[in-house]
Specification:
Layout: H1 2-11, H2 37-67, H3 81-88, H4 97-105, H5 112-122, H6 124-128, E1 132-133, E2 146-151, E3 154-159, H7 163-167, H8 173-180, H9 185-198
Antiparallel strand pairs: 1-2, 2-3
Helix pairs in contact: 2-3
């Protein structure tokens, strides 16, 4: 949180300077025999990058062609908005998989199986649209142990076991105590900024 706050603060300027951070995706789309939380996070990042690319390359170029009266064949770029919403929608109904995962991590009796059940309960429209489906026939996963997401680059089957543990980003109490007791000015400033941002 601290790093994000610092980067965002540094980008806020009153001048005409257009500061930005460029991200180069060096990992790419991931699709293995066994896909878990890490692959979903990487593939989600790539979904967002693809959406950004579509908006800034295809659409802007087409607008330039129209404005300059250049003859061209329209390009139908892929629309991965339904996949992004199914994964990340924070407001409205249904909430995306990531906010749902955060919610489920707070429940005492939640398991990876109840997470998958809840995902399919809330995302019937994503199933109908072909963005979300049950594990394929012949998969080692039962219907309540995983799910398939149709990404812009293809379908990936994810095993949900371990999602709850991997998403739990709480700091152990002893490590939190060490940080709070730190004498280093940098660490103190970082904690103060993070706490102020939370309030």
């Amino acid at each position: 949180d601290w790093l994000v706050l610092r980067v965002n603060a540094s980008l806020l300027t009153q001048s005409e300077t257009r500061a930005f951070i460029g991200v180069l995706d060096i990992f790419g789309f991931e699709h293995f025999v066994h896909n878990s939380f890490e692959q979903l996070c990487i593939n989600f990042a790539n979904e967002r990058l693809q959406s950004h690319f579509n908006a800034n390359v295809f659409r802007q170029e087409q607008e330039i062609y129209v404005r300059e009266a250049i003859a061209w064949e329209p390009i139908a770029e892929p629309d991965n908005g339904a996949c992004i919403a199914m994964l990340a929608n924070k407001s409205g109904h249904p909430v995306g998989l990531f906010p749902l995962l955060d919610e489920q991590c707070k429940l005492p009796k939640c398991t990876h199986k109840t997470l998958v059940q809840k995902l399919f309960e809330q995302h019937a429209s994503a199933v109908k649209a072909g963005v979300l489906s049950k594990p394929r026939r012949g998969s080692p996963l039962a219907d309540d142990e995983g799910f398939v997401v149709t990404h812009y680059a293809g379908q990936v089957e994810y095993a949900a076991e371990g999602f709850l543990q991997k998403n739990n980003n709480s700091l152990h109490a002893d490590l939190e105590a060490v940080l709070k007791g730190a004498d280093e000015p940098f660490v103190k400033a970082m904690l103060e900024e993070t706490n102020a941002a939370k309030e």
